[in-house]
Amino acid sequence: MQPFELSLTEASRAVRARELSPVELTESVLGRIGAVDGRLGAYVTVVADEARAASARAEREISTSGPRGPLHGIPMALKDLIDVKGMPTTASSDVRAGHVAERDSHVAERLGAAGAVLLGKTHTHEFAYGLTTPQTSNAWDHSRVAGGSSGGSAVAVAAGAATFALGTDTGGSIRVPAALNGVVGLKPTYGLVSRSGVTPLSWSLDHVGPLTRTVQDAALVLAATAGHDPRDPASVSGPPVGHSGGGDLRGLRVGVPGTYYFDRVSPAVEEAVRRAIGRLSELGAELVEVEIPMARYIQAVQWGLMVPEASAYHERSLRAAPGLYAPDVRILLEAGELTSAGDYLRAQRARTMMRDAWARMFDGIDVLAAPAVPMTAAEAGQDTVEWADGTIEAVSDSYVRLSAPADITGVPALTLPVGRDRAGLPIGMQLMARAFRDATVLRVGRAYEEAAADRGRLAPVVV
Predict the structure, then answer these.
(1) Whole-angstrom Cα distance, residue 399 to residue 393?
(2) SS3 call for 165
(3) CA torsion sign, 234 to 238 to 240 to 246?
(4) Is 149 assigned a catalytic role?
(5) Distance, CA of 414 to CA of 416 (rounded, Å)
(6) CA angle, 297 as apex, 296 and 300 as ends, to 5°?
(7) Backbone phi, then psi, for 208, in 5-degree steps?
(8) pLDDT per residue over 105-150, tens digit each?
(9) Which CATH code fits 1-463?
(10) In the chain, what's the furthest Cα-to-Cα distance?
(11) What pTM, to 2 d.p., does this model score?
(12) What is the spatial distance between Cα 405 and Cα 312, in angstroms, rounded to a whole number?
């Protein structure tokens, strides 16, 4: 096994045991980037020299003082919405040409303090405003979409071109690409991880979180990045995150949606997710059927919040240089300028009602288990999908449909791989819990993962 094939947990253990040096690990991952990224397009930029210097520094520090923690000397990537002092933050957009960050984002500071090694910045759908990341190819099938908007981060992790990465999630932008590329994606509770120094899409919906190979890896990254930051007005001091447990799930109640989440879902996805839920039952969990509250309002609330907030942020640059935006993003931004204040306020009110209704739902369950996305990765350039009932839906609308509720309500949501379809494409299951019960979704995810045969598997990228 090559070092780039190791999960974060495995690599950290090897570094701690002095069986692997940060320099060897970083060189292996940089070599992997060189071998596969020309085909995948996960990275906007790779800072190889800086990564080598940081890994050598980490090696010296570990040799003299021991590791600071599990991320010390571990190579990682950041979605190119996340500021690193002295580096461009392009948001994968011509609008940001020449932009260089003047200071680190809070998460970059936290990862730097943990001793992580930055490899570079990964592609996003322009300004995170989309669900496909067209610059990047799916790690399992290069003719298919990576998912978005954190597609570059998900593909880098899936291909072994980063040991872990950070993404952002406003309507599913961590969980969608994680599911489509067969990796783990965690959207933490709203406010648990600071967004300061992160280019916003929609400030009342934006989250920052990890993409990793395993659930335990995600727990390690969350523990390093969570914490109050006065620069982010939404930042909160949540309970200690800790590391995920595992083992049996006796005494835990898993909600199985009787509405919404299995509507208009491909047979392969439904079969794999229901089988995974059955596995949770075998591990001791009690399955409880639940109705998803206010399901008919989810799409309207998501768009009613996100679209006007995004347009407000881009107001000046859209008017100054509209031609620099990609057509799909420009249309959405222009549409947001037509949203009335009344519509926005109604969406805010409905979100408050939805949060209350979801909190009542979680009175009866500990975790909600559901599909992460309704179908596997679409063909690049495919605009719509037709469901068995004759409904025609835009691909992006399809992908956001099952992930948006956790952004609206702010609850933690974890996506992990639970199978593949007949074409070999990954399928993801989503676990959600009451706000600040991030440790609960990690515990359940790890229990499932430990019982799975091929956890942490890399995508079979041909070199």
Answers:
(1) 10
(2) strand
(3) negative
(4) yes
(5) 7
(6) 125
(7) -120, 135
(8) 999 999 999 999 999 999 999 999 999 999 999 999 999 999 999 9
(9) 3.90.1300.10
(10) 65
(11) 0.97
(12) 22
Q: Which of 21, 79, 93, 403 is the catalytic position?
A: 79
Beta-bridged to residue 216, according to DSSP, are none
Q: What is the residue extent of each domain of the chain? A: 1-463
Tokens 């010390």 correspond to: 72
- Residue positions counted in the chain: 463
Alpha carbon distance 417, 376 (integer Å)? 11
Rg, C-alpha atoms of the chain: 20
Who contacts 381 (Cβ-Cβ below 8 Å, separation ≥6)? none
- Confirm whether 21 is a catalytic residue: no
Residue 182 near residue 211 (C-beta atoms within 8 A) = no
Catalytic-residue membership of 173: yes
- Tokens describing residue 11: 């690599």
Pairwise CA distance, residues 266 & 281, whole Å: 23
196-233 tens-digit pLDDT: 999 999 999 999 999 999 999 999 999 999 999 999 99
Per annotation, catalytic residue among 149, 194, 396, 398? 149
Q: Is 301 exposed, middle or buried (0-12, 13-18, 19+ CB in 10 A)?
A: buried
User: Pick the catalytic residue: 12, 93, 137, 173?
Assistant: 173
Per DSSP, helices labelled H in 189-314 are 215-225, 267-282, 298-313
At 419, list the tokens. Answer: 């199978």
